[in-house]
Amino acid sequence: MGRIPDLPCDIEQVVDLLGIEVIRDTGTQLHCRCPFCADRKAHMNVKIRDNVFRCNRCGKGGGILHLYAEYCDVNLHTAYEELCKIFGPDGGEPVRKCKRKPRSIETVELPIASAEVRDNTYSNLLSLLTLCPTHQSALKERGLKSEEMELLCYRTTPTTRLKRIVTELLERGCILDGVPGFYCQKDSGQWVLDIRGSGIMLPDRNLLGQIEAIQVRLDKVYNQKFYNLTSVDQYYGTQSKCCPHYVGVHEGDEVVCLTEGVMKSDLAYSFAQGSPYECGFVGLTGIPSYSQYERALEELDSIGVKRINVMVDSDYQVKEEVRKARDRYIEMGAAAGFEMAPITWTQKQKGVDDLYKHLFRDK
Ligand SMILES: [Zn+2]
């Protein structure tokens, strides 16, 4: 290997060239906002004398060439050539200077936070909200009692006070990074709650009862009834990810009922309380959602469930795609060692929630 000739520049000049934001300059070190990760403070440390950098947040580090190469997405050889051209004796045109703005900030997306973090943030968020009278009466119409609405933690999407809600969450120590539904305002760096449609917020809970996601049942249905709280395509936003929704399922239960949707499971479970049909529910939150169903099967097996009552909408009798999904659920469950019990009822009641409402609430 031949000796690499010296570069005609130091790291400070390259930091300037690339427009990396320097938050603090100690004279020997620059504390910068790292352009390679979702750094909002000054995690990138640049040692001026040694001409090296390192981010304590994402771990990226190296020398001048690495910084330039990583930033401009070129190899080290090209980085060397370009830096020589920019800073060399001919003082050529800065080839890259305006080509690349600080790393495509529009699309910075954070990886999703852990279930614990999401649960804590979402629980705190819901605790700051209420269920408006319109939604209360709509749910009452569907057969739900006030105390059940409260127990299920159903809330109305906020339309005002959004800033104060976010401030309160931060003051409570909630983490908003990587929690779908929150993103950062690009110019101010302030966190924002992303509400994309008004409706009833339904907590999507995992087997441990943690809220992994929030579904919103929209007031105005355009092409879908529900959407999941998300901040995808926003600066520091995160894409939503639902989990199989559990209600009333406990370790040691031998039987659970399977249906689709958070609200349907919640309602059916609530309506059957105290009846001979009382049973925990698993609601799949996508139709069909086989990968999620696989997760549910593993989890149900882990707590000792033996039998699954399949209670998908009765329109499987006329809708090909619903029937296919139902067949697949039965097949996959049987293959996983469960006793599968498909339940059929009259098409007068579409969902198991309608059926149970008819049986237990409409009297
Ligand atoms: Zn970093």
From TrEMBL:
Pfam families: Zn_ribbon_DnaG
GO process terms (BP): DNA replication
Residues in Zinc finger CHC2-type domain copies: 12-88
GO molecular function, one term: zinc ion binding
Protein name: DUF3854 domain-containing protein
Organism encoding this protein: Flintibacter faecis
Lineage: Bacteria, Bacillati, Bacillota, Clostridia, Eubacteriales
